[in-house]
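Justification of computing resources. Each target in the renewal requires a structure prediction run like the one illustrated here; the chain below, 272 residues long, is used simply to show the kind of job we budget for.
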Amino acid sequence: MERTVPYTASEEVELYLRTYYSLLRSSSEVQIRTLEEVHSGTNSLLHQGARDDAPDMSAFIYSILRLPNCIHQVRTVVLGQSNDDFSRSGIGDVGTWTLVEARARRRRCYFDGKTTMACIIASRSDIDDVVPLLTAYQVEWKKLHRLLRYSADVTLIRDAVENESARAELAAILKISIDDLERLRTIWGDKFIPNLELIASSTQRLQVRLLSGSLREYRRATYGWWKRIEKVCPDLRERPVYFVSSNTHSLVNLMSGFGLQRRDELLQYLVG
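Resulting structure tokens:
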């Protein structure tokens, strides 16, 4: 894969991209803590409270929904384009590891059951997704850790599941709303107490590594992927093919003509 910096018009975002691409090119592992300051400086709409002392629960919840549940146990995240990349780099046969998934991301990831997670990436846009997610996650984890470490005990955390007053006290300690605490409890389910206890007892020190590769290897991987599909569905060679990354509703818009029918209305909305 070509580890070059994509173009962007925003100086803050450009600095952020330049920083982590430079580190990924020059280091075996990049400490996420080295990206926290420049990440906060982008003033991202998805992480508006990055510099606040209080946790930005929208950003934290956004990140945990897009990272596998094992992320709380992970120390090192390794990015590569195929299982062979990981084997050649000495990581091992990740295909024998546990397949893990995120609720809101369709990215193939494997967990070794200890502290390493391998993520299969398809393009540079995957890097630009994973790195900010990891950084936002760590920034907010550390805020929660500082608040829980000095102000809450295990009993309060455990009582917060059933006791309304304990829940209100815990939310106040965390400087978040009761609604946000409830959202977290809904997402984590029976892991709510263990996860909060883990946050209280340990900080987060993630690191990320991008396995070196080439554009030729990426094309080879893509070709292999397509050949397997073509073998099962040979008629596709005679049909138009639409690639949809994640917004499946775009297919409905395309097939129904909804966007064209509402063209003037949509344009008016976009230009304000």
